[in-house]
Fold these 2 entries.
Entry 1:
Amino acid sequence: MNDDQMKKFLQKNQPLPAELSEQQKSALLEMTLSKLNLSKFSAFWVGLPIGILTLILTYNIMIGGFPSKQPEFSYEVQEYAANSNNEQTEDMDDDIAFEFPTLEVGEEFLTLADSNQMQ
Amino acid sequence: MKFTSVPLSVGNFFLKRTRNKVDEFSTLFHRYEALVRKVIFQITGDSHLNDLTQEAFIRIWKNHSSFKNESEISTWIYRISVNVALDSLRQRKRLSEVSDYDFAAVVDEKRSQEQQATDQQLVQKGLNALNEEHRVVLILALIHELPLKEIAHMLEISEGTVKSRLHYGKEHFRQFIAELSEKRGLYE
């Protein structure tokens, strides 16, 4: 058998796999697509959360403009914040302390004892 | 754009994009499925042909975007199919499975089986009797008629090595056919 005869013999009698039916082909294609995450089903599950997030973002923009990191205050609050300083704040804390004195536990007992003696 | 149509549009965008990719992949699959299966089967004679075909298409798809024209794609498809087939053979060897490529076992089959064997089975046995390096080159050069230069590029070896492997492949194949014919003659 020379080279040319061998080539013809091989080509004529080349081993061939059993041909797949259309159904088998479709099944193989579908399995490969799902392994590649290309199926329409996976697209739905990717699209759904993104769609929901977009909906929420759009809603936020519609009701309050673009969300910003700085909280917005009314004019009065901003004015007060600009004119106030740390000392004033401390004074205010003292006033509060004066208005609402804390009652020591010992004092409470003494007061109760006095009232009993008076009776 | 209406407020309520936003998520639908985003969903449609993703669905359309995926659908395009699915169509593209399906076209590629239908065009080359027979070729990929044939190459893998001829090299491995494998029963896991569908799994290997799937593996080849996954590799093809992951790299397909870098190929511009048809000839490059077909070379790439041949290359991937050959690599998948060779990987499978190596894996089988590692797992110490019973080799389908035992020359002695093939030759010493029962007389009746030999007589019944068609020429196609004879070719398959002859190819299986070769070592994988010779078999791959013989299949690509003689059955698929690929140029030696392309085979060298595909297998990442020199053209000289391809010629040498082809030469030894042919010799061993001839030897196999001759021995089998002699054996048949003895039985008849």
Entry 2:
Amino acid sequence: MALMIVSVAMGTALLSCLLSIALDIKARVASELRQFGANITVEPSVEGLADIASQRRYLREEDLPKSKTIFWRYNIVGVAPFLHEKVFVKAASGEKTLEVTAAGTWFDKEMAVPGGGGFRAGIWSVAPWWEIKGAPPQGRQEVAAGAELALKHGIKPGDELLVDGEPFRVSGIVSVGGPEDGQVFFDLAALQAMKGRQGKLSKVLVSALTSPMDEFAYRDPATMSPKEYEKWYCTGYVTSIAKQLEEVFVGSKARPLWNVAYTEGRVLGRLSALVYLLTAFALIASALGVSTTMVAGLLKRTGEIALMKSIGADGFKTALVFLCEAAVIGFMGGIAGYLLSLVAVRFIGLEVFGTELTRRAMLLPVSLTAAQVISLAGSLIAVRKALLIKPALMLKEVR
Amino acid sequence: MRTADKNKNKNIMWFRRSLLRSLATKKGRVAVTVLALAIATAMLVMAGGIYLGISEKLGSELKTYGANVLMSPGGDAFYLGEDVLQRLAGEPLVSGMTPQLYQAALLMKEGGTRGAAHVEVIGTDVGRLVEGMRLEGKAPAEGEILLGANLRDALKAAVGESVTVKTGDGVVWRLRVSGLIETGGKEDNAIIAPLAEVQRIFSLQGKLSAVLLRARPGQSERAVSRLGEMFPSASLKTLRQVASAENAFLNRMELLVLLFSVVIVFASAVSVSGTAAATLYERLKEIGLMKALGATAAQIRWFYLAEAAVVGTLGGVTGYGIGFAGALAASRGAFGSHILVSPALLPVACAAGVLIAVLASIVPLSGALRLKPSLVLRGSE
């Protein structure tokens, strides 16, 4: 009896645990995939070739907090504004003056959101792999240098750097492992003031949690019927989120980073398919495992069944006794298994994703039902077999 | 001495014969136990095989994120020779490469209205670039180009129109737009054409500006140092955006599959050990009879543990087969390609089968050995 309860409990725990993971896997993996950085760029729209040759249009900084007011606002997990300008840089110890790209940005900044609340915006919200030795530039007098630039010209944190002839203190060295390693970085407001571009931005990077791209998502919204358009707009595709961002940034063009969207769609699809398949296989196996235990447990009691039959119980009554027993085992095992799975799910959530997986109330009834079904099904096989026994032969132990 | 040897031999023979007889006469019971053990070990093999193979499978899915190593000309050189591609192709650490040639050119719309602007021309493996990007029209053939999304907006150009491109040395080319591409990256501000075409337009035959490389996930640092030795005149860099993110991601997913596997294996081991235990309880009478005939506790224990070992091995082998098929089916379903479970897991599966069978037998066996034979045989136990 105890064996059967343990066995049913384990099977149920497995079921409830795997279902919790499988149901949550897409959301959790999608947020893991955000480590790969921004998936939407917002830039000023381009009207003519002159806009390509030199930047003449800008985004407005005041539109930035509006990114947290769109339909899919809760899916926006990172926002980083940039102003790009050319500057002349000369190390205090160096001879040469170099023309480099300066980026005015935020590294980590609490941004006020319309309608209350704050949001941690800045580079680290979209590009967690940026490293800084020292501190991010703050205020009007500080600059951070890209790692390659620093290496080439011997710039160290604490040095003085002449930018367009004015002295700045080097607050840190930024190491990105990309073309940004050749740039210098300022606080956004500092570069805006220096270049007379108050309130202007050249680019905004956005990191958003998205639904994987499917065939429908790749269609051009311009060709959709109103109903389709509404469905598209209200699904968290990277394209529809980009569209909504374009609507809040005046004069902008928002584009998905297609390689990111494409890869995420594929990885999400494949990983969740893998988890679903593993779950299905494991559940079949555990159902089989539990029912073999039930069968084995009942088979040793064939003597009991034979006795019952010989003193007048009919097949139905005999079966009823054993099935009721199975129901009790199923119930107790189901409860124990569900409780066990709560512990396991919590552990896996914290260990793998650093956050608890969603608790789903429906898992309790599902677990209990599954436990009943498995234990009854297992007993049914055994009881059927037992009922075929001839009592006289059985009791004489001639099998 | 001799008699002792003879006795020992006799004992062994008795032991072997009884074991075989016991397995042969109770085929049904043995089959149920083997099946149960096979289920548990199949789960172990399937989950273990997928755990071992997941990193490579997912890693190759991540290749469309982009390169994780950049090779560019070192020192004061402007170009790499195209011959590096051949040498790179033989390097096992490199799983993919895209040659790049960057040039600046003056772009005008046909007829010269709407002004002109200096834009970047990218020569590359266009087929690889467009994978997953939004492409309107088709990939360029000779005399054709792809136009980036911002350039399209600037020119109000459409597929099939032509644009005029003027190179640095003053040669003017008229090129047909075969398609429009949107990547969200720097290609949106550029003209894209097949590498050979760009080499021809700019008279840079055999020259490259850079090679974007894909090292296996987690191997980019090794690839950088290895290739640095192979190509001392080139500069090699890890592109951290992809390299570090994919490492972190793959580690997380490996951990997920590992914990998933532990849960599956543990739960199925416990639920099947019930079967092994139950079949033993069924045989209390046998044990009583053996004791009554004078068998020592040690002999009985050895007998049943040996039986458990045989059944466990059978279960392990069967389980390996089922698990192998399961891992194959799961990887085909999810990735469209195979994860072949390493044969190294076969002994592990057998060991697991034996372990589960033996552990499941120990408790009921010690219980049975404490019982009085007469009571068991009379049936009051």
